[in-house]
Amino acid sequence: MALPQYTDVLIVGAGPTGLACALSLIKQGCSDITIVDSLPQGQNSSRALVIHAATLEALDKIECARPLVQAGINATTIGYWDAGSFVQTGSFDKLASYTSFPMILLISQSVTERVLEEQLKHAGVTVIRPCTTTDMKANEHDSHISGVYFENGQIVHARCVIGADGARSTVRRIAGVGFSDPDGETSEDDVANSKFSQMVLADVTFTAPLDLPYNGIIFVISPDNSFLIAPLPPSPDAPSEQLYRIGFGIPPTLGTPPHSPSVSYIQSLVDAWGPGRMHTAATSSSSLSPHKVTIAKMLWATRFRIHSAVADTFFTHLPLTSRAGDDARVDGADTEARGGIILLVGDAAHIHPPAGGQGMNLGLRDAVALGPVLAAYVKRVKASTSHGQVNTATDDSDLERSLRDWAATRRGRALAVIRMVKILLRAVTLPDKTSWILGIIPVNLHTLRNLIMRIITRLGWVRMMIAWRLSGLGFID
């Protein structure tokens, strides 16, 4: 499919965030949208696992929540297994007074993308694939337009470019926006602050059904690692086979995991830290030796590095000089009204460890919240330029104020989530070693954490507050 020469909004990236952004704009009457992705259909990964209540509330505004709920598994509990017993830490059903979606929706990212893209097709917009962005330049004749260049030689002129193209965003790089840990931490800090800095995820089936205590998210905590397991809706190719998402931290002693983990590699991780450590009776406190849990089929697996970063700004213009190879803005460059506006959403704007299942949720809420603001901007700027009214920087600033407010608000949300996720990760990965207070009092933080959690999570109010915090309902988007 050929790209248009002109569009009001060009969305680069057709993952969940880009698709939701397009749907939100359409809902607000902004129909001149072009959405592109560098990958062919069906090649996007399924890293994200959870959609939280606040995100479902946002998606309900664009009529996508109900189809997703029907396609996923509605779970209400999270918890962990350690030292022969199960601790329920979050009760999402207790949020029923605050949301229409008192649950954690378990659904793979690939299914989320499929549902959102189907909704977009019903609205008359088709994702154009594969299209790889190579550069952006300000239009010589209209200061409110950017020329976006593609690998195939085509050029699209857009009033607004939305970078929804992931953590290695080409749009962000060309715009010269910095992307770094908000606390100035490095990869070495990641290793020092937790047991691991690499993770492996996989979608698998097992040779025999697992006897799990409930149909939700379970962490199996070991002295040297943490293992995640959660049920997923069956694959369309094998509707009778129970599919599971599993995830592992990779301790530094194992080195860097392979780029494409094999079944044998994943099986070795299952043997070391997987569900075989759990007793089959969730109510029993006795410990048994790990039993063999064998992978029958692996549908997908990936590795990734655990780190956090946030863009310096979610709203910008092209710098005076822009080239795809630049890592930062040109010193002294004029950043006002140089080409169309550029906005960043999802992983292009923020990334952090997967603890709490917050990444895609934050991006989806970015996107849905952007729709009304950007649609109003496009309508106003088109009306103003058609009457020759936009001639000064003051006029530009007035038109853009709501978008700057959106960007500042969403960046604040991202910073709050990054702080929360870092705390969660460090709590999960407390070292199983004894420290001495005043040289005479032995304290094992791993054991102390488990004891405290067992005590406080007996209270339903505590389990509800943990669910509230993770659900995102504390933020009004």
From TrEMBL:
Keywords annotated in UniProt: FAD, Flavoprotein, Oxidoreductase
Q: Which cofactor does it need?
A: FAD
Q: Which residues form the FAD-binding domain?
A: 7-186, 335-379
Q: Name one GO molecular function term.
A: oxidoreductase activity, acting on paired donors, with incorporation or reduction of molecular oxygen, NAD(P)H as one donor, and incorporation of one atom of oxygen
The record, for InterPro entries, names: FAD-bd, FAD/NAD-bd_sf, RIFMO-like
Q: Name one Pfam family in it.
A: FAD_binding_3
Give the top-rank taxon of the lineage listed in the UniProt record for this protein: Eukaryota
The protein's name: FAD/NAD(P)-binding domain-containing protein
State the organism named in the record.
Answer: Wolfiporia cocos (strain MD-104) (Brown rot fungus)
